[in-house]
Each structure stands twice: as structure tokens, then as C-alpha cells.
Design brief:
Elements: H1 2-19, E1 24-28, H2 35-49, E2 52-56, H3 62-74, E3 82-86, H4 90-93, H5 106-110, H6 114-119, E4 121-122, E5 125-126, E6 129-135, E7 137-141, H7 142-147, H8 157-172, E8 179-182, H9 189-201, H10 219-231, H11 245-253, E9 257-262, H12 265-270, E10 281-284, E11 297-304, H13 311-321, H14 324-334, H15 347-352, H16 355-358, H17 360-364, H18 371-374, H19 378-393, H20 399-414
Parallel strand pairs: 1-2, 8-9
Antiparallel strand pairs: 3-11, 4-5, 6-11, 7-9, 7-10
Bound molecules: alpha-D-glucopyranose.
Amino acid sequence: MKAALKFLALSAALSASAHAAGVTLTMDCGSGTGFQICKDGAEAWAKKTGNTVKMFESPNLTNDHLGVIQQQLAAKSSDIDVYMLDIIWPGLVGDQLVDLTNKVPAAEINAHFKGIVEANKLNGKLVAIPWFTDAGLLYYRTDLMKKYGYSAPPKTWAELATMAKKVQDGEQKANKSFTGFVFQGKNYEGLTCDALEWLVSFGGGTIVDSSGKITVNNASAAKALDTAASWVKTISPAGVTTYAEEDARGIFQSGNAMFMRNWPYAWSLGQSDDSKVKGMIGAAPLPSGGGPGAATLGGWNLGINTYSKNQAAALDLIRYLAGPAEQKRRAIEGSFQPTIMSLYKDQAVLKANPFFSSLYSVFTNAVARPSGPTKGKYNQVSQAFSTAVNDVLTGKSKGQAAVAQLATNLARIKGSGW
Ligand code: GLC
């Protein structure tokens, strides 16, 4: 009897620490299109556990978002307990995040794609748990494919350019704003993602390889960049060199583009009632330039601020948000791609996102940016790369000169090692 009472008291204490009611947490939920869906999830947890979650609205562009988090961490601020973290950040902020290795049960961690879990490790520490993943896709207008006599989306960039031009010329007769292809051409992290896809698809490598060697100075990489530059002002508007994800989506979703490169979140928004292209969208793998077509691996993860004063409750919150029920809800409501493998067999998830099964191999073969090998210097590497690419897109330089100069700049950033 005594033992049973002791056990009851112990388990009550344990669940009290896991769900300690009455705690107020602050969570970084990003901004823009994903904010409300994130907030709904956090509030569902708060209601279930008797806690409160305040939302911190962070900048929409990942570079600006990183700046805010770095500032907070540099000041050792405990203001934000839970951060949403880009897959490329563990090397940049991971040393100020709580090690989750022995805090999240192994079975729960092993339910996620192994590669994504590995990408969230820094020096053996698990600094975040996967929340959703991302891979670059080619969106296209199924109605216009039919109208212009095309039966399948383009397999190569050359085919894309031909198709985009034909549809653009035809549509512009009635709609001057219509354009062939929109993508992320602004000088920021999003351009690094798009341009990595171009490079890999031309056989031009990944800027820096997995051993840390700078590989970008090669003819295929140069050709990839020159090809992308040839789209500007022919099948893409001049303004594409200033577009981020949401600029491209705005144009595509208002019915003014044939093709768009974007992440999976654009699917559910494109199919919403206020979208002009609802029911007219297809999603395909990105085209090839001779090498294998490639999708950049993106995605977001949840970690706990090492200076947080509410780490037990924060742990409970991130386990809930990264768990199967919440990932399923987010996939159905917002096309946020699960990191939990079993959800790719869930009928409701697949019904809302048919491309999750047809493009499954695109997701599992997505190419990582070189954040692993370049560690704490990744941000500088990416900025040097996107600047070089943007210069080629705007005509300030040509592919070959740009990759040669970039290799020199990267060597300087690398110094004696990453
Ligand atoms: C998406 C990706 C992220 C990437 C960003 C670039 O949010 O998930 O990994 O860095 O786009 O804009």
C-alpha cells in the first residue's frame, strides 16, 4: 500500500514537471503564411496542458530571422523559450540550444527521416527536433499546358524556356502582366537554394563539397548561372532579381505565371478559395540541365533556448508540435511536409497533397546546402554565393568570372579551415 502511494506521488510529480500547468512560454512562430498554423498548434498544446504560449513574430526572410535569433542569444536573453530553426542553422546557433539527445525518447526521434535528424546535430548534440521539411518544386499551370498543347511538364531547363516563352507570348496578347517563369532571384538565402538546384542539375557540384573543399569554380557551374541569367527579361520579368518566395507566389497565384519554383507550402495556398489558380496547378520535379534534376533540402526544426527559464515545459511543447498528430494537421491545412516517415502513408495527408507520394523520391533525394561542412561560416559562404549569383542574374558579371571570383572569396572566408 505504502509502495503504491509512493508510486502515485512519484508519477504525479513526474507528470507535473512534464506538463507543469501555469507556465507562460514564448515561442518564435515565424511570420507570414505559416504564422497562424503555428500559433494554432501552440495554443492547442497550451489548452491541453493548462499553460500559456505567447507568440513571437519573427521576420519572414530567413536571413533576417537568423539575425534576430543571433542577437537574442548574444544577449543571453531568456525572452524566447522555443525557436523555429532553419535546417542550415545548427552550426550557427546550435551551441546555445539545449541538447535534446537524452530528453526526447529515442523512438520519437527515430520516427523522423534520419538525414534530417542528423542535420540537426552539432558535435554530437541534437540541437533541434524536425518539424517540417522542404524541397524545391516546379509548379505549373495545368490549364495552360492543355491550351498550348503540352502533355508533360518540362524535363530540362531548355524545354522549360521554350514552353515558358510560347505560353508567355500567347497569354501576353490579353494580359500584359503575364510571365513565363518566376523564382527566387533576390540576393538572400532563397537564391542560394534556387541556384544550388541549377548548379547540381548541370553537374556543377554543391559550392563546397562534403569534405569542405571549395568546388564552385567549374565550367558546369558557370553554365548553370549563365543559363539562369538568360531567363531574366526573356521568360522572367526583370524584377525577378528582387523576388523572394512570397513575391513569386503572389504572381503565380494571381494567375500571372506559367511556371514557378517554390516550396511545398505554396501548394495549399494555391488551392485555397481565394486563389485564382485553384484546381489548375501541377507540381513536378525541377528540370535538369544535363545532370540529375535537383531539389534543395530546406525545412524547419524546433529547439530550446539554453537561457530559457522554462525548459521542461518548452520540451513538452516542442515534442507536441513535432509529433505525428500536429505534423498531420499542418500537412493537411498548410502542405507543410512531415518529417515523420509514416505520415507519407496517411490517406488524409496524401489526399490533401497528392504530390507527397508522386514526388516522394524528390524529397528523399533533396540536396543539402553546404552548412554541415562550413559550420559557423555557412552564412558567409551563402551570402558570398547568392551575391555572386545575383550579379550574374542582373548582368553585372558572367558565369565563368563569377565562379572564379567566388572561389577566391570563399577561400578567404575559409582561411585555415571552416
Ligand atoms: C524555406 C526553407 C529554408 C530556406 C528558406 C530560404 O523556408 O525551408 O530551409 O533556408 O526557404 O528562403
